[in-house]
């Protein structure tokens, strides 16, 4: 059974950068598309970025495009989210999630498309 573990969160000043990691065990990550989501009490859970199982296709939520970069290393069974120019509104718990299915673009940043989730990592952007 696939298990996902996020890491790399922390406290960073506005304008700073972080790289989140999503490590998989129990199954080959190459069989899954992966998305990053974030959650706050005010806004709930929202999609951040998506990468297809072979890394050929990526999507970003509009407010993250140009600041966040998703990548994957299937040999290492890991997916990464590089976050640059962080803003206080990026403060959230960040989760990675896995989907073994191939979906059209309108589904890839919806939580309902994903059955396997990590436990989350906290990102706090504050001066």
Poorly predicted tracts of residues: none
Order of helices and strands: EEEEEEEEEEE
Main beta sheet: strand number and arrangement? 7 strands, mixed
Structural class: mainly beta
Mean pLDDT level: 96
Taking Cα atoms only, what radius of gyration do you get, to the nearest Å?
13 Å
Characterize the structure shown.
The protein has 127 residues and is mainly beta. The chain is built from no helices and 11 strands. It has strands at 3-7, 10-12, 18-25, 33-40, 44-51, 58-60, 68-73, 78-83, 92-99, 116-117, 121-125. Strands 2, 4, 5, 6, 9, 10 and 11 form a 7-stranded mixed sheet that branches. The protein starts with a strand and ends with a strand.
Quick structural summary:
With 127 residues, this protein is mainly beta.
